[in-house]
Design a protein that fits this description.
CATH architecture: 2-Layer Sandwich
Helix content: 10-25%
Shape: globular
Low-confidence stretches: 1-16
Structural class: alpha+beta
Number of domains: 1
Protein name: 14 kDa zinc-binding protein
Mean pLDDT: 88
Largest sheet: 5 strands, antiparallel
Order of helices and strands: EEHHEEEHEE
Number of helices: 3
GO molecular function: adenylylsulfatase activity
CATH topology: HIT family, subunit A
CATH superfamily: HIT-like
Strand content: 15-25%
Strand order of the largest sheet: 3-4-5-7-6
Radius of gyration: 15 Å
C-alpha cells in the first residue's frame, strides 16, 4: 500500500510529495506512456467519453468528487503544452471543447476547473498532453 505524505510550501498549501517526485522523475520520450496503453485498452479505465480524436476517463487518483482526464488519441509530439506547435491548434481546441461536453454530461453546471500540468515544476508526470477536468466541490484560489 502506498502512502502519500503532505508537505507544505511557504504558502502553507499541501502538496503531495509522491506527485512532485513522480513529476521530477518523469522524462519525455517516444516510448508508449500509460495513456497510450489506456488508449489501446492494454490498461483498463473507466471511459466517460470517446470519439475518433479524444478519450476521456476517470482519474485513478481523483482530486475531487469528479476528476476526469482528457487525452488526444494521437500524441503527435504533443507531450506537453509547452511543446505545442501551430499544427496542434485543432486538437488543443478539441480537448477543451470536449471538456465542456464532459462537464455537462457529469452535471457540473455550477462550475469546474481545467488543469494542464506542464513540465517538472508544473507537476507533469505523464508526457502525453492531458487535460484534468475537476469538479463536484468548491475550488479554492490560488491553486497549487
Amino acid at each position: 500500500m502506498s502512502h502519500r505524505v503532505a508537505i507544505f510550501s511557504s504558502h502553507f498549501s499541501p502538496v503531495m510529495a509522491s506527485e512532485k517526485e513522480a513529476a521530477h522523475a518523469a522524462t519525455p520520450s517516444d516510448s508508449p506512456t500509460i495513456f497510450d496503453k489506456i488508449i489501446s485498452k492494454e490498461i483498463p479505465s473507466t471511459v466517460v467519453y470517446e470519439d475518433d480524436k479524444v478519450l476521456a476517463f476517470r482519474d485513478m487518483k481523483p482530486q475531487g468528487p469528479i476528476h476526469i482526464l482528457l487525452i488526444p488519441k494521437v500524441r503527435d509530439g504533443l507531450t506537453g503544452l509547452s511543446k505545442a506547435e501551430e499544427r496542434h491548434i485543432d486538437i488543443l481546441g478539441r480537448l477543451l471543447y470536449t471538456a465542456k461536453l464532459v462537464a455537462k454530461q457529469e452535471g457540473l453546471e455550477e462550475g469546474f476547473r481545467i488543469v494542464i500540468n506542464d513540465g517538472p515544476q508544473g507537476c507533469q508526470s505523464v508526457y502525453h498532453i492531458h487535460v484534468h477536468l475537476i469538479g463536484g466541490r468548491q475550488m479554492n484560489w490560488p491553486p497549487g
